[in-house]
Write the structure tokens for this entry.
Amino acid sequence: MARKVPKAANAERVQAKAGMLFCLPWILGLAIFYAYPLLSSIFYSFSAYNVVSPYKWVGLLNYQMLLKDKVFWIGISNTLIYAAMAVPLSALIGILLALLLNVKLPGRGIFRTVFYMPTLVPVVATSILWQWLLNPQFGVVNYLISLFGIQGPPWLGDPSWAKPSLVLMAQWTLGNAVIVYLAGLQDISRDFYEAADIDGAGTFQKSMHITLPLLTPVIFFNVVMSVINTLQVFTLPYALTLGTGKPANSLMFYSMYLYNNAFAYMKMGYASAMAWILFVIIIAFTLLLFRSSNNWVFYQDEG
Amino acid sequence: MHKVKRLGKLAAFLVLLVFGIAYFFPFFWMVSTALKPDTQLFIYPPRMLPDPPKWSNFYDAVTAIPFGRYTMNSLTIAALATVGALISCPLAGYGLARLRWKGRDLLMIVTLAVLMIPNQVTMVPLFIVFSKVKLVGTFAPLIIPMFFGVPYYIFLMRQFFKQLPKSLEDAARIDGCGEFRVYWSIMLPLCQPCLLTIGMFQFVASWNDFLGPLIYLNDEFRYTLQIGLQQYKQSTNIQWTQLMAAATLVALPVIVLYFTVQRAFVEGITFGGVKG
């Protein structure tokens, strides 16, 4: 007995040391690649800095100039408009596809693969492919639309159709969300359905009154992630327009303008100020979603 | 009642089929266009299948740009980044899941919190750091960070380690194994599906990365496929058939990789903890 206590305490100490050591690379990584850049970018945002000449403190000047910068506001409005279209539509289609994949239908595995595959395609390849699919004259999409007697829009060639085109492309790559929704559906306890069966509920009723409410935690998670990612949209519009945001700045998204400021014009301070404004916008939307979640997110175990 | 149920299933299947065709069609069109002779490209209505398929488009595509060099560059970066993630993430995941130590819970919260930091905030200071240590223009900025851990993969590893039975490590400890031995020869081998999953994720992420190489690689000799493809789009007088052939070739490796590790992928992710 007397020997056991120190031995247990010793084992605990060994474990505590080991735990720290196992995590040491990651703790260093956090400091170097997250904490330091996060904090220093606040300082850069109050400075004029172009890597070559020395750092110069300018106070709030970057922020003041941003408020007067037309392209900055175009970037904000383009990004918000795009998010307002893309986020709800991807949630809707993602849930629908997951619900369908959750039914015991032939070829489920194949369909799941088909929906996931586009997420693997490099974005540059996606941009090339869809530019061709949506070609106004010779594109196959407008051809298929014309079979219904409708004349297809000019898609990426027209400022008012460019963002909807991008929304369409984003729907092609929502496979990750579908997988998460599907995992959520498979987590829902069978007991709920059995109870509903006894009450004689139909499939549609069960979907509306059991499946959807119990899926809300996963919907919440996916919507938060999708808002965060959509507000940072960069690669697809950049690859499509080679960084120009054409036509008529309709595809000039916030992150593209930020990138151009940082790495095309070497305005590191200006870009850092933009980054912090983006961060604040993202935090605000996330908090808003968390606030609203009390009203529409239900948890299984709370009964 | 049964009849209604079967009709419902049929309707569900039809909707699924329509979406399935819509999602698959772009792949079909990519390959079909890649094989078309130029004369069958700009015609209306479009031709579904090339006749005869012009296989030399692929040859033209890989010789129009230094495709081999770009492939090697992409492969080098993706392979080394994957090795890095496979070393660092299980270590941290294990430390967070199976060992008790002060500060562990705080580290877990921080790990999840940094997932929220937009890349745009950290990319400018990191670029400045890498340019001060003269690593801009090399592959290092695209590889080194992964050797220190990637938060999302650390989270996945932790979830996986958490669900392994405790009896395993206890038995090993009683046999006198050190903590690292327990990890290395008992726990880690059990994580194969999860390791394959994060390995695939990292490989695909590095292979497909566009922003990273765009920021850090300024010498054409070091371009990756993604940047090369973008240049190619810029320089040529849009050769759709060659572009489609190149896009097919660039997408192929990751799709093949996915099919290879697909089974592990489904097992490897436990979404417990997604909720709440």
